[in-house]
Design goal:
binds zinc ion, 34% strand, 139 residues, alpha+beta, Nuclear Transport Factor 2, Chain: A
Length: 139
């Protein structure tokens, strides 16, 4: 899926138009909350915006990869192979420069259901929320 058009329903499932939800964040605006950043990352996965995924991954966290070019290739292949069919945000909070979002992401690879839940953690650095790490949840 390409980047959503401005008036299309946002792929993150917020019920808002993309221009009033994830699109400005994909275009470089700081996400106002950890939830907004998490939603924009789901939309980035759904639309293959790998540069957004890379720049919003905490460079001090376990998911940041030093070889950015190889990482981008890996993400591009993943985004192309997987269909992102929906997102449910179940809880979101922030406390100073740390944040947490619990979500369930729906995705499919061919006939396989790869959906998963995650309790993810975020950190704010220089006014921008970044994805730090996450823990997979059951069901
Ligand atoms: Zn959105």
């Amino acid at each position: 899926m390409p980047r959503p058009s401005a008036n299309a329903p946002c792929p993150c499932g917020s019920g808002r138009k993309a221009k009033g939800c994830c699109l400005p964040v994909l275009e470089g605006a700081p996400a106002a909350t950890p939830e907004a950043l998490m939603r924009s990352r789901y939309t980035a996965y759904a639309s293959g915006e790998v540069s957004h995924l890379i720049r919003t991954t905490d460079p001090t966290g376990p998911h940041h990869q030093p070889d950015v070019r190889a990482w981008a290739e890996e993400l591009r292949a993943y985004c192309a192979a997987v269909r992102f069919t929906g997102l449910e945000v179940r809880a979101a909070s922030e406390d100073g420069d740390t944040g947490a979002v619990t979500f369930f992401a729906h995705l499919r690879h061919g006939d396989r259901d790869l959906s998963f839940g995650e309790a993810s953690r975020f950190r704010r650095a220089e006014g921008r929320w970044l994805y730090l790490d996450g823990e997979r949840l059951e069901g």
